[in-house]
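Entry type: protein chain
Record version: 2
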Amino acid sequence: MRHQHELPSHYELRGRGVSQRGLTPGVLITALSVGGVLLLLAVTFVADWFRTPDLTLSASPLLLSPNGDQDHDAVTAVYSLSEDADVSVQILSEAGSLVRILSSQQPQSAGQHFMVWDGRDDLGQPVADGRYRLQVTAKGTMRSASQGIALQVDTRPPTLRLVNLDDGLRVGEPSLAVQGLTDPDATVWITGNPQPIAVDGQGRFNFVSKLTEGSNDLEVRAVDPAGNSTSLTREIALVTTPPDVVIATPLEDEWTNQQLSTVSGRAPPGTTLKINDRPVALNPDGSFEHDLLLEEGDNLIQVVATDDVGNLTTQERLVHLKTKPPLLTLNVEEGATFGDPVLQLSGRSDVGATVRVNGQIVPVGAFGDFQVTLNLFQGDNLIQAEAQDQAGNVSTLSRRLRYAAAPPARGVERLVRNLSDLPSLAVPLLIALPIILFLAFYNLRPVSLVLSVDRRSFTPGVPGEGKVLILSLDLSKPARTTLEVLDHYGRPLATILHNRRRSAGEQHFFWDGYDDYGRPVPPGEYVIQAVAGTPAANVTSAVHVTVQEDALVHDRVGRRRVSDGRDIIDGREDFVRRRPNRR
C-alpha cells in the first residue's frame, strides 16, 4: 500500500513548465560558474582593450655636442613602463619633422629601459645645431601613452680671447696678470690650477699666474655647458737675470795721456745700451764701440745695459787722464866738476812714476824722492835721467859732469904755496876779521822760541774741506827749525817743517789733522813741538792739543788735502821735505 504522501518517481510540473528531470544542484552550480567566468573574461577583455600604459621619461644630458670629443657626444633617455607595450622612440626637430627613429613599435616588457641618441639623423649625418625633441610612445591594445623631452644640440665652441698676451712674450716679473674674454656661460681653466676661473656676466675673466725662471707654457681653456671647448696656448719666458755686459776697454783704474778714449765691449743682442747717459747702438753680434772725450784728472765711465724686460746691469770704469809730463829734478848742475869718483845723485819726481838713471831703474819713495850712487870716470861723464808717469808721459834730463882727480901736494910744496899767498891775503883778512868776529858773536847768541795754537781742541775734516789748526811760531833770530806732531809716546806722526831755516819774527803754519801718510790721526791727546837750532844751542817749545773724532773723516780715509807735501805759509807755497817714517 503506498503512502499517501509518496509521489510517483516520474512526474512533471506542467503548470510551471519545469521538468523535474535534470535540474539538480550540481548542474546549477556548474552553470553559474561558467557564466561567471564568461562574464569575467568579457569584462577583462573590455578593460584591457581600453587601458593606457603608464610611461615616465628622463634624459641626460639635455645639451648635446656630437663632435667626437668624448664630452656630451650622446644623450641617454631613460623611460619606465608600467606594463608591456609596443614602444617607439623618435627624434623630432623644433618644427616637428621626423629626424631620427630610434625604435619603432618594439615590444617591451614592463620596467625600466634606456635609449641612446648620438646626435645623428637617419642618414648617419650629424644634425645641425638647434632645439630638438626626444619623443617616446608606449602603445597598449587600444590606446597609447607618449612623453617628450626637449634637447639642445650645440657644436659651436665658445669664443676665447686673451688680452695683451702674445705668444713668445718675455717678462721680468714672476707674477703675470692675464685678462681675457669668453662666453658668459663658459667655464675657464688654466694650466696647473685645479679650480676654474670666475667669469662675469659679460664673459670677462682675469687671474694671476706664477711663472718660473725660463720658458713657461700657459694653456687657457674655455668650456661651454654643452662640453665644447676652446684652448689657447702661450709660451711665456720669465727673465730675471740682468744682461751680461763685458767691457774690453778701458781697463779699471787706467791711466792715459790720450784725451779720446774708446769704450768697447759686448752685450746680449737686443739690449738697450747707454754710456754716460748717451744711447749706444749694438752691432748684430752684440759688440759695441763708443768714443769719449776725457777731462784732465779722474773720469768715471758708466755703462748701463737694459734688456727687453727691464732687467738692468751697470758697470763703471775709472780712467785717469794726465797730459802733463812728470816732475824731474836732479841735485847736480850742468858742467859741475867733482873730485870724488863716487857721486850720490838724488832728485824728485811724481809719486808713482818710474825713474831711470843711465838706463837703471831707480826706486821712487812715497813722496816722489829718489837717490842713486854713481861711479864717475876720469874726465867728462854724461848722466841721463828719465821719468815716466802712469799715463805714459815722459820727462828727461841730462847732465854733463867732470871728474878731475888732482894729485896730492907734498908738504914742502904746500908750505911754500901758503907762504907765497900770505902777502896777497893779508889785507882781505884784516878787513874780514872784524866782520867774522861780529857775525860769530851774533850767531852765537841764544835764540828764543814761542809756539802757540789758535785752539786746543781740533776736529779734522775730509780732504778739501779746509779745516786746519793754525800754528804760530815766533823766533827771536833766524834758525833752522823743525815743527812736528808727536803722539803720547813721543813719536812723530806728522812733520810740518823739517830742519828748514826760518827768518826771525812770527810765522804761521797749518795742520789738517792728518799724518805723513795722508791718514787722519786717531782721536786723543797730541803734542805739537817746535825745535829751533843755532850753533850755540837748540831750544824747544811745545803745546798740547786734543784731536776729536769726526765719523765722516774716518769713513773716507784718503790722501792728504795737499798731496805733494806743500804747506801754505803767508799766502806762498813753500815745498817742505817730509820726514821719512821713523817707525
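Comment: The helical segments are 25-50, 411-444, 551-555.
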